[in-house]
């Protein structure tokens, strides 16, 4: 597969969303933006339920208030 590098300018609010998502999901900026593009162009991806979205928002809020509460991905994955 050919891979191309591009520069993208984002408004501050989108940049912050990307940064929060990649931090929580332990993914790169490229992975988060690629998923967003795939969603936009109709490639099927996993869609979280309303409950899962609520949990993610709650986790992001806790992480913002208490950064020391962050756990390694391997630990979180074991719980799942």
Distance between the termini: 32 Å
Q: What is the strand content? A: under 5%
Number of domains: 1
Overall, the morphology is globular
Main β-sheet description: none
Low-confidence stretches: none
The percent range for helix content is: 55-70%
**Alpha carbon gyration radius:** 14 Å
Mean pLDDT: 88
Structural class by SSE content? mainly alpha
Q: What is the element string, with H for helices and E for strands?
A: HHHH
Tally the beta strands: 0
Q: What is the overall number of helices?
A: 4
Give a written overview of the molecule.
With 80 residues, this protein is an all-alpha fold. It has one domain (12-79). Helix content is 61%, strand content 0%. It contains four helices and no strands. Helix 1 packs across helix 2 (29-40). The longest helix has 16 residues, at 50-65. The radius of gyration is 14 Å and the shape is globular. The mean pLDDT is 88.
